[in-house]
Design goal:
This protein is an all-alpha fold.
Length: 45
Amino acid sequence: MRQMILLMITAATLTLGACNTVKGAGQDVSSAGRAVSDTAEDAKH
């Protein structure tokens, strides 16, 4: 029983950590996309 609880806590911790990593990667990609769009807009004018 104790091992099962420890396993569940470990799994939950890893899941939350992965979620934050994916969110951060998404923000980085979004930021890069905005930079490319801004550069393209500046090149048009």
